[in-house]
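Each lists sequence, tokenised fold; shown next:
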Amino acid sequence: MLKRYRLQGAGGLISRKRGPKCTLLVYIDDATSRLMHLQFVQSESTFAYFNATQRYLEEHGKPIAFYTDKHAVFRVNKAAWLHGDGMTQFGRALKALTIEIICANSSQAKGRVERANKTLQDRLVKELRLAGICTMEAGNAFLPTFMADYNARFAKAPFNDKDLHRPMTPRDRLDEAFTWRAERTLSQSLTLQYDNILFMIEPSEFAQAAIGQRVEVVDFPDGWLEVRYKGPSMPYRTFDKLRRVTETAVLENKRLGGLLALIRQSQ
């Protein structure tokens, strides 16, 4: 039996009049309508889903598949972006963890989670109001209590009690999987650009071997960045924005004097 867990974001459930607007991420058992995980986030971003899904996996283990809508976090929706492996960052992370993504083709196919969202829009909003909750942090602290009551009222008994979640193993490195990754070509000057940041790789024999090759920028949810070549990370210096790079800063490195022309072009 394919055990599927539906994953979707519900619209803002904390009123703007009572607190900052936020979105509820909903994880629900497709077979029983049981709420598995709820989490308020600022928006339906890739990093928000990274964080919520990591918490889900740490609590329940790995499902065989997540059944989702066609939000851009889950599926490449623009033809111009269909390059490389054709996967989104979230899809790549789940593939590394051997979890499948199945995108629903219609609202009818998303039936259970759509019905759950309607119930949440009504019942959860009222519960939040009665509890005087008006912040995302307080809302998240309240959700476990709400889930227990919701599941007691609405969850159905499964036809098969076997839990098909797979246990996490030391090989399932969640902190490594749930990262944003991008490839760049390392220049002759040992530099690359990512997210409007100029990286200057520290000179070494290993770095020299990477010149002209594709290197990987690994962007962690906490803001930590690594530049890797064939696995190992390479030490680097950064400038927050290219326009902040001055001739003096370039000359301090000495190894990168030839980069000055690039800096001037970017200003």
